[in-house]
Structure formats: C-alpha cells, structure tokens
Specification:
The protein is globular. It has twelve helices and 21 strands. The strands form six sheets. The chain has a five-stranded parallel β-sheet, sandwiched between helices. A five-stranded mixed β-barrel has the order 17-18-19-21-20. β20 and β21 form a beta hairpin. The longest helix has 26 residues. α7 packs parallel to α8. The two termini are 40 Å apart. The chain is of the alpha/beta class. Bound molecules: 5'-deoxyadenosine and iron/sulfur cluster. The site of 5'-deoxyadenosine has 12 residues, from β15. 5'-deoxyadenosine binds next to β15.
C-alpha cells in the first residue's frame, strides 16, 4: 500500500508528517511522491493565515475525484486547520475518512487504528491490483535525505495578539532530554548529516534540569553530526547564554531566525511581543559580536490593525538596521478568536499590498546583496540531493555535483532566483 503525505505550513508541520505517516507505515504503507499512485493521503494543514487554510481546503475539495475513483482509498486530514475546523471539515467534505487536529498528535496512532484499522486490512487486498509507483518518496518529515528534523517541544505559552498557534497547538510541552538525544542519534545513524531541532518557540525548551543552551551543546557533540540548526526561536529566549552556546558549539550553524514582526514600538506593544525595536536590535548586535559570520533571517507582518505610514516606516528602519539575509513577509490576516481579531482590520487592502511591495523591495535588495557577496568565493555546502544543498549560513546552492550526503566546497559563479550557482 502506498501513502502520500501533503504538508502545508511551517517546518513543525513538515516534521509532524513523520508522526502522521508512522502508524500507516507500521501497517505496511510505503511513501510515494505522487497522489495518483497513493492508496492513502494524509493532508497536514496550516491555519496561521487565511490563505494557508484556504489552500488546504481547496485541496480537500479537489481530492473528491481521487476518492471517487477508488472509494476504498483513505483520506486523513490533520494539523492546525483540522484542529480549528474539525467538525466543519467533516461536514463539508463527508468523503474525508478521518479528521485529527494538531493537539491530538500524541493520541494519533490510537485514533487511526481505531477508526481505520479494518479499512487498512481491506485496502491491502485491493491495493495490490494497482500498478506500483515509479519512484519512492524522500523520508517523510525530513527536510531532505541527509537533513532531519527532531521535534523537541510543542505548543506555545505566549499570546501574540495576532497569532492562532496557541489556540490550535496548546500550551508548551517539552520532550525529555534522553528522548530528544536518542532520536537525534538514531537519525544521524540513518544518514542525517544535519539536524534541525524544532518547536514553536524552540529555545524555551527546558527539561530534566537542562535548558536549551545545554541541549545545543550536547546535541552538537553527537558523533557524526556535522550541522545543528533550530527553528523557530523566540527573541525572548535569545539570551547571552544561548548565544555563547551557539558560538562555542562547532556544529551549530551560523544562522538565526529572529522574527521581528514590526519595527514600531507602538505596534509591538499591541502585538504583545514583549520587546521594543531597540532591545530587539541590541540582541541581534550581541549575536553578531559573538558570531561575526552569522546570518539573520526574520518575519515581518504589514497592515496590523491601526498601522500608520509612520509605523510602517519604523518597520523599514528596523529591517535596514537588522539586515536580514532572508525575510518572510506577510500581510496581516485576522484569525478568529485571537485578540487582534477584536480590533478593526482597518488598513485597506490596497495599502497592505503597497506596504508589502515596498517592504519586499527593501528585503529583496538585502538578500541580493548577501547573495552577491558570495559570488567568486568558495562556500561549504551539504549536498542534500546531488548537486543541491545549503550553506551553513542558510543559502541554497545548486551546482553540477553528485556527492549527496557529503559536505563539499563549491565555488560560486553567479546567482539566480535567489540561489547560489556553482561553477562546476
Ligand atoms: N497574519 C499575518 N501573519 C501572521 N503570522 C502569524 N500570524 C499571522 C497573522 N494573523 C506570521 C508571523 C509569524 C509567521 C510564522 O507567520 O510573522 O512569525
Ligand atoms: Fe501553520 Fe502555525 Fe500550525 Fe505551523 S504551527 S502549521 S505555521 S498554524
């Protein structure tokens, strides 16, 4: 039997794909890259912005034909939008076999077995009659065959006023130290050269008397692990202790995601971010002083309720001061039940568009500048799939290599589409 996993949303969601696939794999499913070749599909949804949710819902709609073609096929809808809209999804798309929200991921194997165990037995008999898929998929829930995720915590204890994550993912839960280390070691033994520790606020992790900086040092020392990354850190826990652990652990990559959201102190307050632009920039400065080659990436929201031209200019100022090598920029999207959904969504759509375009111009120029600096230099790349990989500081590289799983030097000849192009 063949399983196809589709994921929307963040890296957490990608990593959850592994857990969502696991009970089906235990039942004899193998992963395939094509939905048409699949006997079961797991749809891992996101709800962080309306657009993300709409994409998942429209795919569920399109999968009606896939189900009708062979009604014994199994369609599971999981993740954050499933948490928010569970009963509605079941009602609106009655052909969905199982809806399991993000909060239920710990119970998921049990839920799947109870709801679908008998169906799998029947499916196993009919699936053999259909031709096998040509190519197997990459490992489910891994970034690439040589770069794995390890979830260390789930949930979020903050209450950023725009954010639906605490509602759909719940309070913070930390996985025990030994469990995390055992999973990381096992993934290295399976061929991972790079591990990304994951959590909604990954650096708030604390367990068994240890804090996140201790975990960085210890995971960084795993034999055979070349690179250690983590997503998504919360600025509050970017402490001097964490910066020191990054600087002193050779495996930790010179890259940090520091989501700013806005540069206006007034809006940062309304967003309940618990920092102002000056203290945020001071953190970035301390990081750069400790790790001179570090690259910083960020998230920015434009068009938050009541955002004025002046607020927006402060955001541009912050971006110019932070100089992120890559930025994820979003138009504000009110999410039902969040604090800011109670504020008037009063920035006209055209103004949001225009601000986003101006912001992207500034962000893109900074990215282009960072890319251009690498041209004619030789960078160290983890070849993830044979001629495609990433540098330690997070740039994508494409070249004519066939060294998957190896860390290799690549001389950069040019850049295009925000990818460094090697000259061999
Ligand atoms: N509207 C727009 N962007 C949002 N984000 C989170 N919630 C919203 C929202 N309601 C953005 C933030 C966050 C990233 C994952 O998504 O920038 O860091
Ligand atoms: Fe989307 Fe947030 Fe859920 Fe990730 S945690 S899938 S970004 S809603």
């Amino acid at each position: 039997m063949r399983l196809h996993v589709v994921t929307f949303g963040c890296q957490m969601s990608v990593a959850d794909g592994e857990e969502l696939a696991s009970p089906l794999k235990g039942r004899g499913f193998t992963a395939v890259a094509e939905p048409d070749a699949a006997d079961a599909i797991v749809l891992n949804t996101c709800t962080v912005r309306q657009h993300a949710e709409d994409k998942a819902l429209s795919l569920i709609g399109r999968l009606r034909a896939w189900k009708e073609e062979r009604p014994e096929r199994v369609l599971i809808v999981a993740g954050c939008a499933a948490e928010r809209l569970g009963p509605w999804i079941q009602e609106r798309f009655p052909y969905v076999d199982l809806v399991v929200g993000a909060k239920s991921i710990e119970d998921y194997p049990k839920v799947v077995e109870q709801a679908l165990g008998a169906r799998f037995d029947a499916l196993a008999e009919t699936a053999a009659a259909f031709p096998a898929a040509a190519a197997p998929d990459k490992p489910t829930g891994w970034q690439s065959p040589h770069s794995a995720f390890v979830t260390i915590m789930r949930g979020c204890n903050y209450s950023c006023s725009y954010c639906i994550v605490p509602a759909v993912r719940g309070r913070e839960l930390y996985r025990p130290y030994e469990t995390v280390m055992a999973e990381a070691r096992a993934k290295v033994a399976m061929g991972a050269k790079e591990i990304t520790l994951l959590g909604q606020t990954v650096n708030s992790w604390a367990a068994d008397g240890l804090k996140f900086p201790d975990l960085l040092r210890r995971a960084g020392a795993i034999e055979g692990l070349e690179r250690l990354r983590f997503e998504s850190p919360h600025p509050h826990f970017v402490t001097d202790e964490m910066i020191a652990a990054m600087a002193q652990t050779p495996a930790v990559c010179e890259q940090l995601h520091l989501p700013a959201q806005s540069g206006s102190d007034r809006l940062l307050k309304l967003m309940r971010r618990n920092y102002d632009s000056a203290s945020f920039l001071a953190k970035a400065q301390r990081l750069r002083a400790a790790i001179p080659r570090v690259e910083v990436t960020t998230d920015i929201i434009v068009g938050f309720p009541s955002e004025t031209d002046d607020d927006f200019e402060r955001t541009l100022d912050l971006v110019r001061a932070l100089r992120p090598s890559w930025s994820y920029t979003f138009k504000y999207s009110p999410r039902e039940g969040t604090e800011s959904a109670g504020m008037p969504d009063d920035v006209p759509s055209a103004v949001k568009e225009e601000r986003l375009a101006r912001l992207n111009e500034v962000c893109d120029a900074l990215t282009e500048e960072a890319l251009a600096k690498r041209v004619t230099t030789t960078v160290e790349v983890l070849d993830e799939t044979g001629g495609f990989g990433r540098t330690r500081d997070g740039f994508k590289v494409s070249w004519g290599g066939a060294t998957a799983g190896k860390i290799v030097p690549v001389r950069i000849a040019s850049t295009s589409k925000r990818i460094l192009r090697g000259d061999s």
